[in-house]
Batch of 2 targets.
Target 1
Amino acid sequence: MADESLFEFLHMEIVAYVYKHQSGDNNDQERGNALSTLEGLGFRVGQGLIERFTKDTPTFKDDLDAVKFLCKDLWINLFRKQIDNLRTNHQGTYVLQDNKFSLLSQFSNSKQYIEEAPKYLVYTCGMVRGALSNLGIDSVVTAEVSVMPACKFQVVIQRA
Amino acid sequence: MSRQGNRGTEGKKMLWYLPFISPSASMHLMNSELFTLTYGALVTQLCKDYENDEEVNKQLDKMGYNMGVRLIEDFLARSSVGRCHDFRETADVIAKVAFKMYLGITPSVTNWSPAGDEFSLILESNPLVDFVELPDNHNGLIYSNLLCGVLRGALEMVQMAVDVKFAQDTLRGDNVTEIRMKFIKRIEENIPVGDE
């Protein structure tokens, strides 16, 4: 049992470190490297976490079930709440909306600092992608923020 | 409805007592696996970025320091401990309140030096190393060095300069994890400290 704020602080430090270490010139390429490093970290953690959490659950009937599991059980385990809204076009695109994302809730309640927000979402995108990948689903996960602390994660399932 | 007289405790502030971490505090508790796995990913990334273990240890300590200076505020806001009068009280608060609140473990405080300025925290289990094994080529790596930085940063914000080191580590084959803390001095001036 660990405390939620520990993870939030650690996450802040990781983002700060990756940016300091990766961006020498602070141009778009460097920023892209930092984002992909963070996403990669999240990916590996997501894979590990989903293995632990689904040890005893039966296999999922289809992609929608897996995404629903993500929205409910996984999100509760990670952020102590469920995803507030799940939308899908039934053709492989899912939008997960969290109205009070815990990693952003200390940031602001409006559009201030919105340019900084993506840095703090990309780790979670990686976790979602990693979780789905260990459930056998290849995907691309992106996040968007319009008004903090609400954010939307968009999952696009890749069919081989 | 009977009214019970509340004697004397209203105006008097209890300066020294250990707050009971009630079960309702569990709304702050989360699955520690997320934290453990994230920490593992971080250490792996650091090992990839830096060539030698010494650098990684230093980075972990720095990051821990930055975390500690923020964590102390969160800690003081949520627990109701007052100012500690001496280093022994500090040790007790760290072991019984802070570790319990943040990591859910209660290390024991032992090995006090005769001058009373050094002690050891013995952790039977360390949640940070839950799924971890050190590979052979990283013998100098102090995996949980973040903890040292956190303790150092947090105490510096309450005007105590301390030196924190790992004396024993289960990852390196010892039975328990032992953190040795040494009081250096009291920081007198309240100048704002920038992040390192």
Target 2
Amino acid sequence: MASYKPVVIPAVPKLGEKITQDTLYWRGYKTPVQIKEFGAINKIDFSPVPPYNYAVTASSRVHIYGRYSQEPIKTFSRFKDAAYCATYRDDGKLLVAGSEEGSIRLFDISGRAPLRQFDGHTKAVHVVGFLSDKYRIFSGGDDYSSSLWDIPSATEIVSYSEHSDYVRCGCASKLNGDVFITGSYDHTVKVFDARTKSSVMTIEHGHPVESVLLFPSGGLLVSAGRYVKVWDVLKGGQLLVSLKNHHKTVTCLCLNSSGQRLLSGSLDRHVKIYSTTSYKVVHSFNYATSILSLALSPEDETIIVGMTNGVLNVKHRKPEESKEKSQKKRQPAYRTYVKGRNYMPKQEDFFVSKPGRCIMRKYDKLLKSFQSSKALDAVLEPHIRLYTPEVTVAVMQELNRRGTLRSALAGRDEKQISLLLTFVTRRVIEPRFTPVLITVADMITDIYQPVVGQSALVDKQFLRLQEAIGREIDYQEELLEVLGMMDALFATLTEKRATYLEENKSNGLTKTLDQDISI
Amino acid sequence: MHGARAVFSVGARFLLCASGDFVKMYSVATEELVQLLRGHSDLVTGVQLAPHNRLQTFTVGYQLLALYALPSSEDSVFVIIPKSGERDTFQLVSVKLTKAAGQDMEAKELSVVLEGVDASPKCTAFGREGEYVASVKDVNLQVYFFKQKQLNRFSLRATNKKGGNNVFTCVACHPQEDCIATGHADGKIRLWRNFNHKKEYTFSTLHWHHDKVLDLAFSLEGTSLLSGGVESVLVQWHCGSDCKRDFLPRLGSAIEYVSISSDGTFYCTSHTDNRITIINSNLRFSKTIQGLIKARDVKTGLVVDPRTKALVLNGEPGHLQFYCLQSDKQLYSLDIVQQEYIHQAGLNQSDLVRVAFSAQGKWLATVEEREETDLELQLKLWFFDEETQSFKLNTRISMPHEDHITAMCFRDTDEMEDDSLMLVTTGRDCVFKVWVILEDTDPEAQQSLSWSCDFVGSYHSYQATNCCFSEDGSLLAVSFEETVTVWDSSTWDLKCTFCHPPGKIRSICFGRLTCSKYLIGATDHGFLCCWNLLSCALEWSAHLNVVVLQPDPLSEHIAAVSWLFKESSLFVFKPNEARPICIQRKFCKERIQFAAFVPRDVPETIGSEKYLWLRRSQLFFLTDTQELMTVSTKSAQERLTLSSKQLAVEESLPVTPFSLLLGKHRHQQSQGDVDLGKIVHHHHEQDSPAVKELLHTPAHVLPSASFLCPIFINSLLVSKENKSTEETPDEVEMESEEAEDDSDEENSVTEMKQEDKMPLESLGETTHRLSKSEEKELRKIRKVDYSWISVF
């Protein structure tokens, strides 16, 4: 037999951002610490060894910060002009940096003066790095050349002049000590092998390349220019996917510690985080100004973003919340659970079954006993009215269905009417509540029409309700106008659509993800 | 199952209730039908246990409106009969019974006790040990004392000051004290005492019901009073303390009758929706006996659940009932609306209006609506959960259309892939909408599947009235008032339109199998049109006022039911030829609302070419008055054996002595019947399966003789079936009841025999008719056999 059916609270799909594991993870950072540098920050690099200091290259200095320090713990300032791309070696002991004047300097972390200086580039060197064999350095300069240097002898091993424009980015393979990659403004990415005299692979990016990144496995290459493109190196540089989520040039790329997420920073002030399996944006950060450099510490403990205005934005991860709070609540003892439950009825016992207790909300209890006025009072309690207005509206609807809404609304004092009217005024414009609340508003005005003018408070509320509804009507009119305009636009566009579709089919081989740019 | 109070047998083991022309005996413990008592040829209006013989029961029907039996007057019963010569006046008379307890009794000795009583059996009650009788009508209560021969009349004002309605609705008498309880139309119960004085009578009032008190009953000792009404709450009043009362709420629908078993352990309430509830004396719900629940208004139409082959239609308010045709039982009731139903007149509560199943029964779509000042619509999609074996709510869409939804259908593709599944709804807001499943790839999401709108189509802002997918799912036909539009279901391009002015399209359907290139439409101007989809031209049209158009899912046949001159006719045709295969003219005097083809479990072998279309599925109809009917080809015996327990029939079994005996008996019978005419003889020779089964089944697996006997007897009563339905409507109806083995009266299934029409027209009536004497003879045989059972 049927039991009482509680009031159904209609669930409305949550609009806006969906909360996923990713958003929770990437939201778990404290409020950022801002550090002002002297100029635009072109490179941030974390030391691969604890305590994970990081080197920030800005203007003519390279600052080394401790993880939680706000002041640099060390500064290399032996540059005449701007310094570029200070990068740690794998063991965290050496640091190499390029410079505007074309020389490359190698520093010991503990020392001050450069250990070595490599001269050979005729113009500014924007990219330098260590090969994974630790004894060689690669570099790329504005003289269109990319070179390889030997650290012990401080001499140039080989120089490749294959690019036809500035070489502005590069990276070395972590698996092979001979392979490095450079990206240039001539729209190409070239893969060099130190054992050969020329590049082994050229990938056409299509835009000036601002950043390149090789996956730890070495199989996938990410290049960033106007768009971020992922290439399969093992298939000879085939385009895997093109990510068009930024609306300005992407300046920096970075992988998280697990290699599951790819981060990209752009001049459009966003950092976007992609899943490396689906290449969809799972999260994004907003920053105040255009982003030039980006780094993520091991274990994703810190995100550091360097911007064009010289501000260094440091975000630390919140410490894991301890779960002590929930443990404090004492559970009932075991014997309270089993009390009387382990008794087996004997044959001559008369078994009286006790129905399971069902827990009902207060308004359901009142509705069950047909106390409509009290049920309405129950859902006008502040915590229900303010935080779960859908419950209030659902109960109002249920009362209306039972035909008792009018009597429930009637016979209320000044304070209660004003409270009701405040609720209606505030919620009547929400589309999901509108049909019910219009009925409620109608009834209230009907019932309390004779007493209008007796209370200033209630009169004020009535006026506010009128105002709210009038405003909403204006909005709707405006929206309809916009809709009409859009219809007219679409009508003119329909003829072009047919040709557009065909175009799409022709380049069906290249899989492109047309996602909303401003996600 | 209504028309009379249900009666418990002595010891409360069985429950007897009147159901149409029968009295049905149910087991209280197992709620199964134990026995069907036949004999009346019209509605049974009263059932009473004989007070002295514990095993006898009285039943009345036809013109006798109520029956009362008293332990004090052994040889007479009281009945209410209409007063001769006057309409709408009834009198209570006592009838002397003859000792011979035969089947029918012709009442000879009548003595009028009370005049001007109400026709309802609830309005008259006998007091303590039959000393007095109380009867109410309108605002008058009259009490007649048998011993003193005194008649006291009490009357109330029609309305009191507070606007209450004082009209009496029912009366009950205390079993041990001089106390009468009366129920009133405004929900009050009055307890009358001291009523043997004309002036100094007293009454006290109990008030809980907000509407009419529909029935009252005192408990065995008179310590408590039970009352029931529209609220569907059984109220138990404790007489000692006035205000104390217990409730048993939510019994489903209005309580029509309340009765109590003679030992007081069970109560029983009969409800308006064709259901009986058995309740323990401590007001605990115990059992329910239900057949096809009578909904207030069947809006969903007849739908067949592809999984269970059950008929699905509106049940309790807001519920969907799954009704098994084979066992005449409700399989289960699915709560769709999931709102508390308030039993109160004049309330607008949401009800189920449309139902559709996907091809495999995996998805169920329902539409519920509630219309007050503005319309509330909800489209719900239910997913069949294999684990719990029931439907689980998957998606709820509020306001899928701005106006009423007129039709809804799934794309019936047989592939198991989900992405081809599609739902189309048409609305009066001039659009049709296509709904598809969205798969949420996010593994953290609670449910991965949900439905959302894919396409909205419209045609010149005409109201969309019907929709239908072609068999392969590639085309969708949507009718917009006068026009049928055909859409490509992959690109949603409008392919072509058909129009047959004047008249709006009432229903459309695609042909199936070999006829899949045809589209059939029926207009409300009385035309049935068939369009060829390949040539986009009208193939043929016929002038026929079709109210229901129903394609058979398993064959290319289409059934059309027309309504002409206040009679329904059935036409079955194939779309590729304009000539119907089968015509059944005037098979029903009521308007047919819905029809459905129910697939058979096993295809049947049908000899007659005329009924070949019924080979794979059976056609059911629902009329305006919610009677369920079917078209049948088989003879009654066959049907019965099918519905009875499936006995193992093996040809190689040795002949049992019982079968020999019966066989001999049968032989004699058939020899005696030779002169009945050729057709009868012919029928006997084709060896009815009932008899065959009886003879070939070993005795130890046979059901009781009382069960088999009617089958056997019926197998001998062949001559009746040769009569057409028109000639002897009531008899055929009774017979069909037997055949269907129904448990409720509204399932009265009108059989249409194979021999019904055509032979009758060709051979003439005389050959089929039995002479009166022969018919009598057959009746005699039947009677004899019944008495033979009672010896057992």
